[in-house]
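Q: Study each token:
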Amino acid sequence: MDNSAVQLVGSPCGQHGPYTFYKAFKYVKNGLNRLVKLSEFFFVKLWTDSDLVCIGELQLLWIDKNSEQVLSSLRLYFLPENTPEGRMDHGEVSRLYWIKLNGNVM
């Protein structure tokens, strides 16, 4: 998708040097308007010639005034079998018991 297909939504929510930050963008795919906001999760296909799909989380969205490009920062989540180490036969479950809310220990 090229930058001409992306429209930033709303007014800027911050600025730092040549960067202007936004909270969401919209685009059209297959005739449907789609909106992606900060902290939203969505499926990402990294390469057009691969079936590998991961989950992306939009963390930052900004325009660089020097290059006039719309840029984003994503956190990507992969299945273990799609990592260099692969899926392990064993795992570990973390539990947290010391959280205290309103005087009740959970």
In short: The radius of gyration is 19 Å. Confidence is low (pLDDT under 50) at residues 93-106.
